[in-house]
Design goal:
It contains nine helices and 13 strands. By secondary structure, the protein is α+β, with helices and mostly antiparallel strands. The strands form three sheets. A five-stranded antiparallel sheet has the order 11-10-9-12-13, covered by helices on one side. A four-stranded parallel sheet has the order 2-1-3-4, with no helix packed on it.
């Protein structure tokens, strides 16, 4: 067991490029499942591909997988997360699955919450692509204009700050969005700045991270002006371009070292 295998359909991401630069051992980037046998596996396939064959294979293999297969599976779909992910002290905003929702159910959901605006998010997304925000009066037209119903519906949380907590090993990095699109995605023009450790948030998520043996990932969440916390997503294949831009280029060097310390030190 002396190789790090990155299982990825797209080998040209910033994350993989930087890990190649920092890794001084055997590293293979592939989409072939057979190469994973008896090695350490880092899965970098997000849910947007709608293909779980990699996880189905790993679930029956004897390979060491960074982050457990059940958690990788659970976090690929936003709807699965909202239904099954339980973190004491944190909750998702109210959520409606649009795949089977009738017009009356959408109306009842939106009127019952009384929000000014609503978010429509793809079940299988990546980096905020496909997310729509619309005023309540435009909600039905926005739903009708969707090419498919593979979306969930949530109220837009007013007067809140969007934050991201990236973790690996014993390290935690916090950012907050200051302008632009989806936090964590440079391509959408989002800008972020460094944030001090959010001790209140850590108190809620650290027991969950330990319980589920998570090595790395990113929590996206909101904090309202009343101090309320709303979890948006747990991402177990997060990008790191914005992270390094905000926190410095030593981040992936530390990430590489943490993998070696935890997975390759006998």
């Amino acid at each position: 067991m002396n190789k790090l295998i990155i299982l990825a359909k797209n080998p040209n991401t910033y994350f993989i490029k930087r890990l190649r630069q920092e890794w001084d051992g055997d590293l293979i980037v592939t989409h072939e499942f057979s190469a994973t046998f008896d090695n350490v596996i880092l899965v970098r396939n997000p849910g947007i591909y709608r293909d779980d064959s990699d996880l189905a294979f790993l679930n029956k293999s004897y390979s060491k997988v960074i982050n457990t297969v059940p958690m990788l599976w659970l976090t690929r779909s936003k709807w699965d997360q909202y239904n099954k992910l339980i973190i004491p002290g944190l909750s998702f905003p109210p959520t409606l699955d649009l795949r089977l929702a009738t017009e009356d159910e959408i109306k009842s959901f939106s009127e019952g919450l009384g929000a000014r605006a609503y978010c429509l998010k793809p079940h299988y997304g990546q980096g905020g692509w496909g997310v729509r925000v619309c005023e309540k009066g435009d909600l039905f037209k926005t739903v009708q204009d969707l090419q498919d119903r593979e979306f969930i519906l949530q109220p837009y949380v007013e007067h809140s700050e969007e934050r991201r907590c990236v973790f690996f090993g014993s390290d935690y990095y916090f950012m907050k969005k200051i302008k632009g699109g989806y936090l964590g995605n440079h391509a959408q023009g989002a800008e972020a700045e460094r944030l001090a450790l959010d001790d209140e948030f850590l108190k809620r998520v650290q027991p969950f991270i330990r319980e589920h043996q998570l090595f790395y990932g990113a929590f996206d969440y909101l904090v309202t002006d009343k101090g309320e916390y709303h979890l948006l997503e747990l991402n177990l294949v997060p990008g790191t371009e914005q992270l390094e831009s905000v926190h410095g280029t030593k981040v992936m060097e530390k990430f590489s070292r943490e993998i070696k310390n935890q997975w390759f030190t006998s």
